[in-house]
# Entry
Amino acid sequence: MTSDTSLHAAPATPDTAWQDEIRAGVRHVRDLASLPLSPAERAAAKSAAANHKVRAPKAYLDLIDWNDPADPIRAQVIPSPEELEEVEGELDDPIADHEFSPVPRLTHRHADRVLLFPTYQCAVYCRFCFRKESLTSIGRGYTREALEPALAYISGHPEIREVILTGGDPLSLPDVALAEIFARIEAIPHVRLLRIHTRVPVVLPLRVTSGLVAALQGRLMVTIVTHFNHPREITDATEAACRTLRHAGFVLLNQSVLLKGVNDSVDVLEELCRELMYRLGVKPYYLHHGDLARGMAHRRTTIAQGQALAEALRARLSGICNPIYVLDLPEGGGKVPIGPYYVEAREGGNWRLRGLDGEVRAYAEVVGA
# Structure
């Protein structure tokens, strides 16, 4: 896929090159015509795209092996006709964002932290997104006025210590908007940490500029939670982006989604988690079981399969490279660990525990009076 650089009025600078990557990628259903899909694939993709927006920057599309119909990058962003097959039990709002939203653009599910939605737009629209219904139906960007009720709510609730920017993708916003949001949150004395959930370092690494870093520096501790799902997403460009964020003093974590046909292999997950930590300096944080988003049954594994993968990772990787396998419960129940269980039996303070080598051993508690 090529872009016509003659359309640009001026050469790209480091702070604007990322915008060119977006323009040269897929931004609308009609842009699917520029991709090397067969006529049947293109028709099926257009049909599926009616249910969920399509967007992918050129840098991310360039990672796809178009000769492989099962390519793991392709599977994450190119619409599939299987998305139209909804299964009983799937939900519009799988983790009850709306039920726990006291004011627009804010979710308050847990006492000391809130989700803040500065935008409902993304640099990339993942086909498996659990907020796909909201992102497609709402589709609104950032305005100062839209955030006022949410910021007033945070200011009026001193129990809130952590604000999580999500969406949509907060880092798809311009630097000036990020700086405004950061300043407003930083001015609330009881807020101590800003967490940002983003796929930008993965799919649009050129977006991580000095201007972006400057917009997020100040009193608040800042944690960037990236979303790498496959080791093929780790490139020289993503390495450079994560290095910039690390050198700025931000804490880097990653949450992956367990996806059938993408990363449901212990070898793939092992490489992903090891390279995240050793190459990018990003701590694998969560491995999410697939949420009950509509049309995603073809990408969900069973919990038993996920537990087996998590157990195999535990035996292969350093603890710092291991994510926690979690399920984000419907109805706002929160994320609960559902990984392998190593307790075989217990009687009082006497335990029988299965080790990583498969052997069961006795362990007696010894505690003071």
